[in-house]
């Protein structure tokens, strides 16, 4: 048997060393990734990463001088006997009644104080902890100093609590020794539910075919070869495979040598955590793409959004009101003074909307009100705005993974409820260019008043002449211009000239009003574009920035 075991023993792999600082840097990169995606991705997809960061930080802070090794196996595989043989003491109960091991037992090589905090974290009860260090042993056990060996419950136990305990501990230990026996080494449960799941932890996995003494010497190589085939199918190629028997120390010599080498290297914990990081990074890889994300929506999509925002904000209606208000105010300032009074009785179009510049001379504190009377958007305008926001999300997130497309869409819609008030404030606070009267209004208005006074002088002169004649007094000797008396010329000339100036001014007013409308529309469009940037585009860019940084953080967490 010794010769057979010696020939079939495989050296435990220890050529790939894990640098502790590099591992800590990778864990920190995953932590950054989680911080960056917080609020953008579903928590259900990040549970494994959060668990790893917390568990790895705790494991590294507790002890790097101890190596936690678990013996895991099915009922009757003899792992408790193997546990006792390695400890050279009867610590874990062995019997024919199944399951025998109902709780986890721990054996610590070296002072128990050094591993007590680690065992507290693992969850091994104090009464099930044993110390393997005695003066009688001399230096026989010194090679395993720092080893914490666990005897786990049977993973195929009929009691569900045993299976849950095994699953919990398998996520905490540094190295797992899978114990199988010749009768059940090909059992589907151990391969599909356990061994296959450890393919990323080949560096901290070891398989032993226990109770090898029950096989005829000629059958042992065949069984080991078949077990190796199954392990290769489980993506565990290269994992050490040993044949053991717990009935004699020579039967566990290869396993003990592998444990001594593991304890001496102090690499098992780092390799286990590195494998966990590899698994988490692989699981998160689907959450980030290979291509660099775009900086934001393209210009065409932004223009479409601004048009939709302008429609929802009532920019066309306000621009039309600016044109009408300009014509209304210009007519009141440059029109014929005789008919100006009735113009003032007509409401100012901007005053009706409670907008800035509602009328010349208004108090700015009263005109810059928080709410306007701009008509509410129609159903078509609201629909157009919704489609524009959707276009922003789809155009920006088209090249992103599905979860990030959802995050971009959510960000684009996140502040949609605040848009109506924000647009209303933007329109109310926009300078429409109607506060100051143009200089030419004053010049034309002054000319109209001069012509009106001229007509009034002529009218008064004529009235005085009629009054003198009616009283029988000598008539006035009115000067003439040609054959037309001067008073008559003043009256008719003033009236006709005023009408002529008003007629000539009207097309100029219409042209200036259209220009005022264009300027106001540009300013309003710029104001609502700022709202779109703040309430739609900025949240989208935040998501894109988080995605780019998270992608870089995950790349840093990948093993080089």
TrEMBL record:
The chain crosses the membrane at residues 443-468, 488-509. Pfam families: MMR_HSR1. It comes from the Bacteria. InterPro entries: GTP-bd (IPR006073), GTPase_Era-like (IPR005662), P-loop_NTPase (IPR027417). GO terms for molecular function: GTP binding; ribosomal small subunit binding; rRNA binding. Keywords: Cell cycle, Cell division, Membrane, Transmembrane, Transmembrane helix. Residues 69-210 form the G domain. One of its GO terms (biological process) is ribosomal small subunit assembly. One of its GO terms (cellular component) is cytosol. PANTHER family: GTPASE ERA, GTPASE ERA, MITOCHONDRIAL. This is GTP-binding protein EngB required for normal cell division. It comes from Micromonospora echinaurantiaca.
